[in-house]
Amino acid sequence: MHIAISGNIGAGKTSLTKLLSKHYKWQAHFEEVLENPYLDDFYNQMERWSFNLQIYFLNSRFSQLMEIQKSGKNIIQDRSIYEDAYIFAPNLHSMGLLTKRDFQNYKSLFDLMESMVTGPDLMIYLRSSIPNLVNQIHKRGRKYESTISINYLSRLNERYEAWIQKYKKGKLLIIEVDKINFVDQTEHLDSIIDKIDLEIKRILK
Questions:
Q1: What is the predicted pLDDT for the residue at 34?
Q2: Catalytic residues, which ones?
Q3: Angstrom distance (rounded) from CA 103 to CA 67
Q4: CATH code for 2-204?
Q5: CB environment 11-41: b (16+ within 10 A), e (fewer)
Q6: Domain definitions of the chain by residue range
Q7: What pTM was estimated for this model as a whole?
């Protein structure tokens, strides 16, 4: 079983990945943030480092997927390979921060990699409003995220919504996170787990 958790910056993907991994006793695969050598540079000079960052993420997520498929284990994954290709890279291109040449180069690499892997059995999308995202980003206090603008988050949210409406790689579960606190409220987490259990049963039928 392969479950991927998607959502905008600050939606709670990493926190939910950790909690679900602990509950199900499944292996967790996290997004490379602290080890990423481009994030600081990117947020300070997006136009210069956007292509480098996207290629780094693409390589990292493809490697993760290859490892997941070979392992035969039950996996919870923090963010999917699709989000970079359908949300982050196109957004940078539309903002003029990723050239047409670089975007086409990136997209051709993604198309090749995607042909070699399969999508997750279940995609969990954490839907969040902009105010909630901003609050969560400020709360965790990552230095490189301090320059993220509301406009940037809004653009990403619009692309997330457009992508999720057309998502057909596997089962999809949408969780509205604005009015719940699955980190501190056990009953909120239990409610999410009940929904996931139901989807898993449907997949295994």
A1: 62
A2: 78
A3: 26
A4: 3.40.50.300
A5: bbbbbbbebbbeebebebbbbbeeebebbee
A6: 2-204
A7: 0.92
